[in-house]
Specification:
Elements: H1 13-56, H2 65-79, H3 81-88, H4 102-130, E1 133-135, H5 140-173, H6 175-188, H7 202-223, H8 227-246, E2 247-249, H9 255-258, H10 271-293, H11 300-305
Length: 311
């Protein structure tokens, strides 16, 4: 009888940790991938009957199918979000970027809104000055509705893209790769149902929205919470919608600079200087916040506010 022995090479602690980290990264991507496929399938399954039902009652008859698809996708994403968070181990408010002292949270939200609104208004003012946009009047609805829409979009998209997607990827991939991956996803999902006639403007708009997504992820990392991100996103959306509501097309030869079509002011070259100005303003704002509110283990903001959001 011949006895044979196989010697096993001892596995070091570093190798074991690397293997565990790789498994965690694969698991995170698998969970997010399955979640995305389920959301898309649910949106496809729901959007056609919902559109048909609305047409029977005469509701939203002027809205394209893409609008119904996006709304159904948002609904499916919200419904399926809690199981995904539990699976990824993101069960607390703090893990999703929603833990902060009350006063710094308010200051960051309002400050981000004001700075983003001002940056977008500078872009719109330049378009008006150049004649690319023409003033067409002003009504109260042109002011109030964009602000309300901006708040809703800012809260939902920042919680989803920065709090959940970027937060989950950052734990396994690190900040840099998670920042660009989540930003590309954020930009791409704005155009999944773009009409064919608008496809020419998708690529430059993708570039601009990827830059905006990266800026918002930087805000999350820099401030340590989602409140600055929500303010910036809400202010930018409010300003953009307000500008498009109170102005109309002017001269048609500056599309390369100020954008055109459904992605007006987003897919033009002028959007990048506006993002750069916004980043500089936010950098200065965060330096002030760090100096006055985030000192020590317990920031001055916590001591002043006396209350911490649950986390």
């Amino acid at each position: 009888m011949v006895w044979s022995f196989r010697l096993r090479r001892p596995v070091s602690r570093l190798q074991s940790q690397a293997a565990t980290g790789e498994l965690a990264r694969v698991r995170t991507l698998r969970v997010l991938g399955i979640y995305a496929l389920v959301v898309l399938a649910a949106a496809l399954a729901l959007s056609f009957p919902v559109q048909w039902l609305c047409e029977q009652f005469g509701w939203f008859v002027d809205k394209p199918w893409g609008k119904f698809f996006r709304r159904c996708a948002m609904l499916a994403a919200v419904v399926g979000l809690w199981p995904v968070l539990q699976t990824l181990g993101m069960a607390t408010w703090g893990q999703m970027g929603l833990r902060s002292a009350a006063l710094p949270a308010v200051v960051r939200t309002v400050g981000g809104w004001v700075l983003a609104f001002a940056a977008m208004m500078l872009l719109g003012g330049a378009a008006l000055f150049a004649g690319d946009r023409v003033w067409n009047g002003l009504a109260w609805s042109d002011l109030l509705k964009p602000v309300a829409v901006g708040v809703g979009v800012g809260v939902f998209e920042e919680f989803f893209f920065r709090g959940v997607i970027f937060g989950a990827l950052r734990r396994e991939w690190g900040v840099a790769r998670a920042l660009w991956a989540s930003s590309l996803l954020y930009a791409a999902l704005h155009f999944w149902s773009a009409p064919p006639k608008e496809l020419a403007g998708v690529l430059p708009a993708m570039v601009s929205l990827t830059g905006l997504g990266a800026l918002l992820a930087w805000c999350y990392v820099r401030s340590g919470s989602l409140f600055l991100c929500v303010g910036v996103h809400a202010g930018a959306v409010a300003a953009l919608r307000m500008l498009l509501a109170v102005t109309e097309e002017g001269r048609g030869d500056l599309g390369w600079l100020f954008g055109s079509g459904a992605f007006k002011l987003v897919n033009g070259a002028a959007a990048w200087p506006a993002l750069a100005v916004l980043w500089l303003a936010l950098s200065g704002f965060e330096r002030v916040m760090t100096r006055f509110y985030d000192r020590g283990d317990q920031g001055m903001g916590e001591r002043r506010a006396g209350a911490v959001l649950p986390g």
